[in-house]
Design brief:
Elements: E1 6-13, E2 18-27, E3 30-40, H1 47-65, E4 69-73, H2 81-99, E5 105-108, H3 110-118, H4 125-135, H5 147-163, H6 175-181
Parallel strand pairs: 1-4, 4-5
Antiparallel strand pairs: 1-2, 2-3
Length: 187
C-alpha cells in the first residue's frame, strides 16, 4: 500500500504595506487551508525596515509551516514605475527567504491565478475570495478583512492545480498539431 503523499504550499501575495500569505496542505489530490493571514507594515515608514520585516516574517512563516514549495504572485506591469520597483523588492525579499531555506519557487501572473480559481481572468478580489471559501470550505470566522490573504491562498491553490499538469514548451495548436509533432505517440 502506497502512503499518500503530502505537500505544504506557501502562497504569497507581495505587498509593501500589506503582504498576504496562505498555507495549503495537499494530501493526495485533496487540498485544505492550514493558515491564512497578512504581514502588516502600514506602521513602518522606512522602506528598508519594511523589507527587513518581510524577510523576518516570511522566514518565521516558513519555520512554522515548513512548506515544500512557495507560490508567489508575479507583479503586474502598471503605470507607476516607483510602485513596481517597491513591489518587486518586496517580492524579491520574500523569495530570498524561501531561497535561504532551499524552497522551490513558482511564480504566477494575476490573470492566471484568477482564471484558475474563477475561470475569469478579470475576476474581482471578492470573487476570488468567495470561490476559495466555497472550494476549500473556509468558515467566515477564518477569513481576514484583507483580500491580500485570500489572494495569497489563491496563488497557492493555483499552484496546487498546476502540479498535476506538466508544462510543455511545444505549444500545440490542436490534436492534429500534437500528432504531427509526436508521430510515434499512440492515441
Amino acid at each position: 500500500m502506497n502512503p499518500v503523499k503530502e505537500k505544504i504550499i506557501l502562497g504569497i501575495d507581495p505587498g509593501t504595506n500589506v503582504m498576504g500569505y496562505g498555507v495549503l496542505k495537499v494530501t493526495g489530490t485533496r487540498a485544505e487551508m492550514v493558515a491564512l493571514g497578512v504581514i502588516d507594515m502600514r506602521k513602518i515608514s522606512d522602506p528598508y525596515l519594511k523589507l527587513g520585516h518581510i524577510f523576518q516574517r516570511v522566514t518565521g512563516i516558513i519555520e512554522s509551516y515548513l512548506p515544500d514549495e512557495l507560490a508567489i504572485e508575479a507583479p503586474f506591469f502598471g503605470k507607476n514605475v516607483q510602485s513596481m520597483l517597491k513591489l518587486g523588492r518586496a517580492q524579491g525579499v520574500a523569495m530570498a527567504a524561501a531561497i535561504s531555506r532551499d524552497i522551490p519557487i513558482h511564480e504566477y501572473a494575476p490573470l492566471k491565478i484568477k482564471m484558475a480559481i474563477t475561470g475569469n481572468g478579470a475576476a474581482s478580489k471578492e470573487q476570488v475570495a468567495g470561490m476559495l471559501q466555497r472550494i476549500l470550505q473556509i468558515k467566515d470566522q477564518d477569513l481576514t478583512p484583507f483580500f491580500d490573504a485570500t489572494d495569497a491562498l489563491g496563488v497557492a491553490y493555483c499552484h496546487y492545480l498546476q502540479m498535476g499538469r506538466p508544462t510543455t514548451d511545444k505549444g500545440y495548436r490542436g490534436w492534429k498539431d500534437f500528432l504531427q509533432k509526436n508521430p510515434t505517440r499512440k492515441v
